[in-house]
Design a protein that fits this description.
single chain; 507 residues; alpha+beta; f41 fragment of flagellin, N-terminal domain; six-stranded antiparallel sheet; 25 strands; rod-shaped
């Protein structure tokens, strides 16, 4: 073997390995002291990148949960305020219902009007003061507010809350007041000469984007339109509701009518949109037409036919009422040889008929009274009544429904109180819809919070697998390196003894 004293290869080799063992030992010690497998990029460059990205996502998920919780809090405050507004509206509804009874005198109705106005003021105050973190919730300005719930950009949802101010709550209303028309001829010719009173197959009615087209020519009828609105699924889902009523008060007070001895008089009654008579009443020559007898005959025939028509007397005038169906009377005189012995005015029978006198020479006359129509919805909508607008008294055949807000409520008479009830009812549905929407938002945001929390937990677990040290494995590594360090130190001492062998040769 070669013996040298200027270079001790064995000692140098052992020293290099000692340095390597020391480095490994220091790394194991560092990991055991910090609990991290990756303490710097040199430990695992790719692992550090992945772990840092996972940590970023986990922290962002936590913040997203906090953002969603803020959204839930805002929605809860708004829903709580709307609950108070709902209670006020219910009270207003019952007061309007009370005012609708004609047993109230003017003073009682005025007191109820003041009570309602105070409740409206309370609603305004609630809507004006409801806020979250300085943001007004119910004044109409809380629109398209973004909630960033996800860990990445553009992972958002938006919240909008409609205004609950009194000026913005109410119902969008189209009022069609039923009109009357009279003509010195048959009903068929009356409709031909007054086309607005006939709803033809070539015409349509459009309400809120939904179209009604008649299958046959029919008389313009408010209840027909109201039933269409109330039974249409699309309009029902949008919160539409319609009502119709018809009350015909004869123009003239009743005067008994003597039928000429050689004449006869026939009245054809039309109830609803059909253009064929529902029943007829005939008086023969020599008879006298009295109000009581006519009322009895009308009610008897209507009941037998199952018609929604009621006749009664008010202030010695004939009153005909339906649930909105159009009422038409076609009168005819079959004249005998004696002229001028039968004559009557249609104004005794129906509202708007006073311009028509039926006698031996003018043997036919018709008068039509259309019912009143009211269409309400919680949101604005367009309408088109072209072709029948005059019969319903609409000032505009087409247009956009006008808002009857809470500030405009009037319960000082029966008609206005009835309308107020409808407006408040529609408003209650709108408020309930707003509350339902806020409830859905809370459910959605809570689901997001739950998902974010679960995702953050799983993400941290994934990061932990990469970043954190396995103590059992690292302790075994530390022990191994510690043993190598001790062994290396012992061998270095032995290697340092090798050059001394040269001294044996020099003796």
């Amino acid at each position: 073997m070669a013996l040298r004293i200027n270079y001790n290869y064995q000692a140098d080799f052992t020293h290099v390995n000692l340095l390597k063992t020391e480095r490994n030992l220091n790394t194991a010690l560092e990991r055991l002291s910090t609990g991290y497998r990756i303490n710097s990029a040199k430990d695992d460059a790719a692992g550090l990148f992945i772990a840092d990205q996972l940590k970023l996502v986990a922290n962002a998920l936590d913040q997203g949960s906090r953002n969603a919780q803020d959204g839930i809090s805002a929605a809860q405050i708004a829903e709580s305020s709307l609950s108070q507004i709902y209670d006020k509206l219910v009270t207003m509804y019952t007061k309007a219902q009370q005012a609708a009874a004609d047993t109230n005198d003017a003073n009682a109705r005025q007191a109820l009007q003041k009570d309602i106005q105070k409740l409206v003021d309370a609603i305004d105050k609630i809507a004006s003061t409801s806020e979250f973190n300085g943001l007004k919730l119910l004044d109409g300005t809380f629109q398209n507010k973004v909630i960033h719930f996800g860990p990445r950009a553009d992972q958002t949802l938006s919240i909008s809350i409609d205004s609950a101010r009194a000026k913005d709550l109410g119902a969008y209303v189209v009022n069609g007041t039923g009109q009357s028309v009279a003509y010195q001829d048959t009903l068929a010719n009356t409709l031909t000469n007054n086309p607005d009173y006939e709803f033809k197959t070539t015409e349509t009615i459009n309400i809120g984007g939904v179209t009604l087209t008649p299958t046959n020519n029919e008389i313009t009828d408010a209840k027909r339109i109201a039933d269409f609105v109330n039974n249409n699924e699309t309009l029902k889902e949008l919160g539409f509701q319609a009502t119709a009523k018809n009350k015909s008060v004869a123009d003239n007070t009743w005067q008994n009518i003597a039928v000429g001895s050689d004449d006869s008089v026939t009245f054809n009654f039309y109830v609803g949109p059909e253009e064929s008579p529902d029943f007829s009443i005939t008086y023969t020559g020599g008879s006298t037409i009295t109000l009581d007898d006519l009322i009895q005959k009308i009610n008897s025939e209507a009941a037998a036919k199952g018609l929604d028509l009621t006749a009664k007397a008010e202030n010695n005038k004939l009153v005909l009422e339906t649930n909105g169906e159009t009422v038409a009377i076609e009168a005819s005189v079959t004249a005998g040889g004696t002229a001028g012995n039968t004559s009557f005015n249609l104004g005794q029978f129906i509202q708007g008929g006073s311009s028509i006198t039926v006698d031996d020479s003018n043997t036919k006359g018709t008068a039509i009274k259309v019912g009143d129509l009211t269409v309400l919805a919680p949101e604005s909508y367009a309408y088109d009544f072209t072709g029948v607008s005059s019969a319903l008294g609409l000032t505009s055949a087409t247009g956009t429904a006008l808002l009857n807000n809470l500030n405009s409520l009037d319960v000082t008479n029966n008609a206005n109180a009835e309308l107020a009830m409808k407006v408040i009812d529609t408003t209650i549905k709108k408020v309930d819809s707003m509350r339902s929407s806020l409830g859905s938002i809370q459910i959605n945001l809570q689901a997001i919070v739950d998902n974010n929390n679960f995702a953050a937990t799983q993400t941290r677990e994934a990061e932990s697998r990469i970043r954190n040290v396995d103590f059992a494995k690292e302790m075994a590594e530390f022990t191994r390196q510690q043993t190598l360090m001790q062994s290396g130190m012992a061998m270095l001492a032995q290697a340092n003894q090798l050059p001394q062998l040269v001294l044996q040769l020099l003796r």
